[in-house]
Structures are given as structure tokens and as C-alpha cells.
Hints:
Keywords: Membrane, Transmembrane, Transmembrane helix
Oligomer: single chain
Order of helices and strands: HHHHHHHHHHEHHEEEEHEEEH
Largest sheet: 8 strands, mixed
Structural class: alpha+beta
Transmembrane segments: 77-97, 103-124, 131-149, 155-178, 199-215, 267-291, 297-315
Mean pLDDT: 79
Helix content: 55-70%
Amino acid sequence: xxxxxxxxxxxxxxxxxxxxxxxxxxxxxxxxxxxxxxxxxxxxxxxxxxxxxxxxxxxxxxxxxxxxxxxxxxxxxxxxxxxxxxxxxxxxxxxxxxxxxxxxxxxxxxxxxxxxxxxxxxxxxxxxxxxxxxxxxxxxxxxxxxxxxxxxxxxxxxxxxxxxxxxxxxxxxxxxxxxxxxxxxxxxxxxxxxxxxxxxxxxxxxxxxxxxxxxxxxxxxxxxxxxxxxxxxxxxxxxxxxxxxxxxxxxxxxxxxxxxxxxxxxxxxxxxxxxxxxxxxxxxxxxxxxxxxxxxxxxxxxxxxxxxxxxxxxxxxxxxxxxxxxxxxxxxxxxxxxxxxxxxxxxxxxxxxxxxxxxxxxxxxxxxxxxxxxxxxxxxxxxxxxxxxxxxxxxxxxxxxxxxxxxxxxxxxxxxxxxxxxxxxx
Length: 426
């Protein structure tokens, strides 16, 4: 450290105080927002306690959301990351304002471990997400602080590290308790899965319905952990379809009971699939050799991730091949590889029409999905199924998506169009 440089200790202490006040301000404002999420509501002067409790429960239920990519406010997150990380990096690593001391390191630790996670958690999402996301942000901020703060300014960093370790240990204990509950109810899950197979035609939809019936709790917050099991279902599907489904054939449909339609034969998607597998194999070898020059451990970690990605690509095609769209008296059952799956009852279907939108316009329609596979050049999707209202379907890893239309391109397009029309008229 430069002996001619001295810090204003009082200014450093003021910096810490200001940051702590900012933390308490964020928490207090958020708690106020939780209590009265809509300030324009007209409430009685002296409402009964039961009314207050009911309103608070409803507001909490409406604000709590599953973690999904659509719920992320990307612009705000990028702004907050730039405002907090960049100045601290310039001060700590580049030392643009001169050598740093322990008090400045404490300010950076407060920024990265407390303020940044709180700001991202409270303002980085359009709806409130699980508190586990906040724990992940805190852990990420701690790792960032340990990397960013130099050794001559990390005297207070150990306190943050110990505190976060205690918090994360509590989270792990909670997760182990939930895992014990899952293991205990696993036989019930298998029983419900076999039952759901009689009503649904695809693995992911059957398993998701079994999860819903097996792990439904009175406490709505516990039901959020169904998403963890749906993520596990995607992993199970990836392993099964990529390694153990090669001798399987398309499940037979009883004539007259239902109709099945494939959508992978009429097109050049098989060529795209072979090209992706070929490219991934070459990438696995090349990246492993390149990374191994620096670290053998890192090389095998990267190779493992690449192999897992390759299994996903193979599993997706196998799932498409073995999971045709099924139309029966109840509705439309579909599973597009391991990317999307769902069920749409006929009561939710308004009609099927010829699609007049271009491929680009279809891709820009955020309230829809397409049951179509393309080659290197995308082809026009011939039909669109309009829905009477929003319908929830599941995407990869069990994330939700709300759709209002379904674009379809089947191998037997005209027959599919007539069959859907006949079911709608019933």
C-alpha cells in the first residue's frame, strides 16, 4: 500500500452507515408493498381483522409466482448489475481511486452480498419468486466478493462468509427434509403415474399429472417444489429416450378410440438432427483437447456437460418420434420432444383454420406454440388452432407457458384438419 495515501476513516464509516440504511429502506419499502400492494384500493376505515387477513393472503398469493424466464425483468437486472458491480470492480481490482483498505472492502462486501441480492430479488422480477432465489443470489454475491476484494481489504469478509455458510446450511437441511418427504411418497408417485398413463398418452404429461396429485399440499408454498420434480422428470426423460428407447415403437392406438398424427417425417428435420449430433461429437473432442491443456479436471467437467447436452439432443428427437399428437374424445394430447407438452380439452378449442401468417410472424407470436419441425429453411405452417381462452402448457424443465393458439404442421395435414373439425362439431 502506498504510505503517502490515507483514507478518511469518518468518510469510510459514513459509507457503511449509508449502505446499511439503504438495506433497511429496501426491506421496509418491500414490506409496505406487501401489506398494501395497491395503494388505490378503497379500504374501510376500521376493517375487521378477518378481512385484513383475507386480503393479505390474497395479495401474497397473487404476487407469488413460479420462477420462469418470462417473469425476469432483464433490463432492470442488467441495469442493477452495471450500477453495482462495475464501480466496485473499478475500485477493488483497478484501484482507480487509490489503494483500498478494510473499510472500503466492507462497503464492497455490503454491496455484493446484501444490497445486490436484495435489489435483484425485489426488483429483478415482474412477480415475486421463491426466497430460495434470494439465497442463491446471496451465495453468488459472496463468491463474487471473495474474488473481487483483494487480500489487503478483506478483514471483514470472513464475517459475511460465515453468515452465508450458516444460511446456506439451513437451506440444505430444509431441502433434505423435503427430499425425505419425496422418498417417502415415491411409491405413491409410481402408483399415480401408472394410473395417469390410462388417461394420457405421453410420459411427461403423465408424470407431471402424477406429481400434481401426489405432492399437493394445503400450504401453497410447498406446492412450488413440484417444479423441482418436473425438472427431474425432464432429466429422467432425457436419459430414457436417449439410451433405452431405441427398440421401442410408437404406442399403438385403439382404432376408433383415438387418432394419432406424427409431425417429424414430412420434412428435413432428420438431416438437421444428424448435423447437430455430428457437430456436437466434434465439439466434445475439440473442446476437451483444448481445455485439457490448462486443466484436466476442467476438461472432464466441460466434456461431461457437453455429453449431457448431446443426450438431450438425441432424447428430443427420440421423444418426437415416439410421441405423436393424439386426438381423442377428451381433447388434444401433445408432447414435442422433451421441449413442450400439454393437454387442451375440446371445450377450450374455438376452431381450426388455415394459417395466413408468415413463418416470421408465427415466431413473433408470444402467445402460441408450434407443433412443427423445420429443416435449414423454415416452411409455411398450414394450420392454426384457435383457443377460446388462455391455456397453460409446460415447457422444458416444467416451466409454464400460457398460449391462446397452436400452429400445427402434421405429416398428414389434411386428415388432421378434418379430424379436429369432426371433434369440434360433436
